[in-house]
Design a protein that fits this description.
Nuclear Transport Factor 2, Chain: A, 567 residues, five-stranded mixed beta sheet, Neuraminidase, mainly beta
């Protein structure tokens, strides 16, 4: 489904008076707001109707009109191209990516035939749909050179490649979706988010084309696809009739065995289930249904639950530290499952069979069975160890301040350096880590100068070996992050502050423009726990109690600290 847990930033719906003002076609001005068109419930789309240039427009008006036209849903940018010379139109590639400036807008200056715009670059959207935060944000200039045509009208002769858009343009004309691929062993789906223009030709078509094109550059080394090489979408579209999406694929898929057909079916179904009017997916080759065992045709959108990207059993519950040790939060009263020695900041395995925790002095990691009376063994001793977290392979990850990332597997531990990091990122500055439950990404808190920032790096697996690569900032506002946890396969929850704001719980949908901020229940809170699925509320802990989120309010649970969900 469309990214919803972090409460996708709602578009501002036009009021009735605003809509009535747009009921007639304007006779001047480069662009007008159009009526709201059909969309998912609660997700109104304001359509931009671009206007071609009119006679006598100044160079600055031409540039502004061009930019406003690029924010429309016109897939060919025909109106935007009418602001360009023929040569410039031929050379301009609007699909080269998007530069997103911040809410302060653009300052425009004109000198002769050159128009310069300056603003704060806050994000980028790559050609493959990958959204990236620019942090720290930086002032950037975009230059347009104009020329007069034979009629004396100004047109843009030289311009930057791609698009230059504001946050309002992105909120109005773009949407973020997950394209689903698999872990390298094809055990679980992994979301690869893309941020793409609203498609007039149909969102289903756009998503399937993105799926067949392969994962975005950043996540690609960590995932796999079941589609045979050169598989393509026939007919150029995915029609949706009476809730059934018809996906007509090329003959390459006929060479796939049944297990592979099941996997590619899962990728298609999970990707297309985000489109609100799709209830099932029919896969065909040359007009004939593709034979896939274990599922009906068409395949319902709730098919393939066993490869869910949220790798957590339905029975999993939260845990915390009580006065006498570890407790399970699975009823009205916490249930003791004390493990010795007493551990703080515990991490619980996905099957809830094992626990890893930190010693009272913060230096050692112990691992043992999750059972009352069990004795944990010391597996690692360092300097200042963060909360351990488990991935689905049974590996335990944590940070040792001053040293970097550590992976513990069985009785053996290894330091895991982070490769491909930008300048100023040091392994020694990693103060906390939370591995995604599918084991393909790891959230990091990194202390740089006087701030602690949230990052995400990918995990590449090579047999028994792993590498952690190319960390990315996922937020440009948080300045003092205290803890983080994966809420679901695509959402990191961060406990922290942004400048002078009060302590907040921030849901960040990784790889998209979407985040949600809410005030934390207690200014002295230091830990956060989150997990996917109904009935699993966010938990925030301080030194004496835990708070459980109940809608927009928080409920106190006295006497327990360090809450955690498996993972």
């Amino acid at each position: 489904m469309i990214r919803t847990r972090a409460a996708l930033a709602a578009l501002v719906a036009l009021g009735a008076s605003a809509l009535s003002a747009c009921a007639t076609i304007p006779t001047s001005g480069p662009v007008q707001q159009g009526p709201v068109v059909a969309a998912a419930a609660g997700d109104q789309i304001v359509r931009v109707i671009p206007r071609a240039p009119s006679a006598g427009m100044t160079p600055e008006e031409i540039v502004r009109g061009f930019q406003e036209a690029t924010a429309s849903a016109d897939p060919n940018y025909d109106v935007a191209r009418s602001y360009l010379t023929d040569d410039a139109s031929a050379a301009w590639n609007p699909d080269a990516g998007v530069a997103v400036y911040d809410e302060s807008g653009l300052a425009t200056s004109t000198k002769g035939a050159v128009v310069t715009q300056e603003g704060v670059l806050s994000a980028t959207i790559a050609e493959d749909g990958e959204y990236g935060v620019v942090a720290p944000q930086r002032r950037t200039r975009w230059t347009y050179t104009l020329a007069q045509d034979t009629a004396g009208q100004w047109r843009i002769a030289q311009l930057p490649q791609g698009l230059v858009l504001g946050p309002g343009d992105i909120a109005r004309s773009y949407r973020s979706f997950d394209i689903y691929y698999f872990t390298k062993d094809f055990a679980n789906l992994v979301p690869a988010p893309v941020t793409v223009p609203v498609s007039p030709s149909g969102q289903a078509t756009q998503l399937v084309q993105r799926l067949l094109a392969g994962p975005t550059a950043w996540i690609a080394p960590a995932v796999a696809t079941a589609f045979p090489v050169q598989t393509r979408l026939l007919l150029g579209s995915v029609p949706v009739t009476d809730g059934v999406a018809d996906v007509s694929l090329s003959r390459e898929v006929l060479n796939a065995d049944d297990a592979t057909r099941q996997k590619l079916s899962a990728q298609l179904v999970w990707t297309l289930r985000q489109v609100p009017d799709i209830a099932s997916v029919r896969i065909t080759v040359n007009g004939q249904p593709l034979a896939v065992s274990g599922v009906a045709s068409p395949q319902p959108i709730d098919s393939w639950p066993t490869v869910s990207p949220d790798v957590l059993p339905a029975s999993a519950t939260a845990y915390a530290v009580g006065a006498k040790g570890l407790v399970a939060l699975n009823g009205e009263e916490p249930t003791p499952v004390a493990v010795s020695p007493a551990l703080r900041t515990p991490g619980v395995s996905l099957d809830s069979q094992q626990v890893a925790g930190v010693s009272a002095d913060g230096r050692s990691v112990y691992v043992g069975r999750l059972a009352a009376g069990a004795v944990a063994e010391r597996r690692y001793t360092g300097t200042d160890v963060s909360r351990p977290s488990w991935d689905r392979t049974g590996a335990v990850w944590f940070a040792d301040a001053g040293k970097g990332l550590v992976q513990l597997r069985g009785e053996k531990w290894s330091a895991v350096p982070v490769s491909g990091a930008p300048r100023g990122f040091r392994d020694a500055d990693i103060v906390a880590a939370a591995v995604s439950r599918d084991g393909t990404r790891i959230g990091l808190l990194v202390r740089r100068t006087n701030v602690v920032e949230p990052w995400v790096a990918r995990i590449e697996r090579h047999g028994e070996g792993v590498t952690v690569s190319f960390p990315l900032r996922i937020d440009s506002q948080i300045t003092e992050a205290l803890d983080l946890a994966w809420a679901d396969a695509g959402t990191l929850v961060v406990l922290g502050t942004s400048g002078a704001t009060p302590l907040e719980v921030v849901d960040i949908v990784v790889g998209t423009p979407t985040s949600r901020h809410q005030t934390a229940p207690e200014t002295s809170a230091t830990s956060i726990a989150a997990a996917p699925g109904p009935g699993r509320s966010d938990l925030v802990g301080d030194s004496t109690m835990t708070f459980e989120q109940d809608g927009s309010t928080w409920t106190r649970i006295e006497g327990i600290t360090d809450p955690v969900y498996p993972g």
